[in-house]
Amino acid sequence: MEKEQYLGVSVSPYTYEQILMDLKKRIAEGKQSTVIAVNPEKVITAGRDPVVKELINNSTYQIADGIGMILASKLKGGRVKERVTGVDMMGRLLQFAAEEGHSVFFYGAKEDVVRTAKEKLEAQIPGLKIAGYSNGYVKDQEALVSQIRESGAALLFVALGSPRQELWIKDNMAKLPNVKVFQGVGGSFDVYSGNVKRAPAFYRKFGLEWLYRLAKEPKRIKRQMALPKFLLKVFVQK
Prior knowledge:
It catalyses: UDP-N-acetyl-alpha-D-mannosamine + N-acetyl-alpha-D-glucosaminyl-di-trans,octa-cis-undecaprenyl diphosphate = N-acetyl-beta-D-mannosaminyl-(1->4)-N-acetyl-alpha-D-glucosaminyl di-trans,octa-cis-undecaprenyl diphosphate + UDP + H(+). It holds the Pfam family Glyco_tran_WecG. The structure is a single chain. The chain has helices at residues 16-28, 40-48, 50-57, 67-75, 86-100, 111-124, 141-151, 164-172, 188-193, 201-205, 209-216, 221-224, 226-237, and strands at residues 4-6, 9-11, 33-38, 61-64, 103-108, 129-134, 155-159, 181-184. It has 238 residues and is an alpha/beta fold. A six-stranded parallel sheet has the order 4-3-8-7-5-6, sandwiched between helices. Strands 1-2 form a two-stranded antiparallel sheet. The model has no long low-confidence stretch (mean pLDDT 92).
């Protein structure tokens, strides 16, 4: 399926199921794949930073994480019909790994957060094999890469914040031939550990998580202004 472009940034019009089907095929072929979440804030940043734009556009799957991407697709008559959030994509990938017999590795966040996320996910997903984990404060990167490689993990979730996590993936993919799926997951470990609560189902269903977060953290208003700015730019470009 052909990708869509918004202000020079690629977005994959795939659903969760389509991504998983495609990944299964790519893994069988021995190919490495990357998953990156795209939202209006990230697109605006990419417009100022060519490194961020390159990281996004060179990814295998640029998932539409944010209601702004759905609205932009509607403005342009595109095919992005549903949100594919980073945290839910991680959940689907973990379930996929358990069903297909692939082990996974977690890297990033604080020690107690990533450890608790590991323990809770192992309890929640039957058959899930977490081959190892490391917090995000490791100084010996060579040792970390060796640990991931020796774990035999086929899926790697990196939580260092964007674009740092994507840069780390880009720099280390070739050193980790056993890893077939890389995803930068931002604050997902915080969610799965229970350290951060997601918006209620009502807000998630209608793409209003941003409104829930804004009500909880009014200081986020500056970041949320990226949404109308992004839609205006897309409309003018249209």
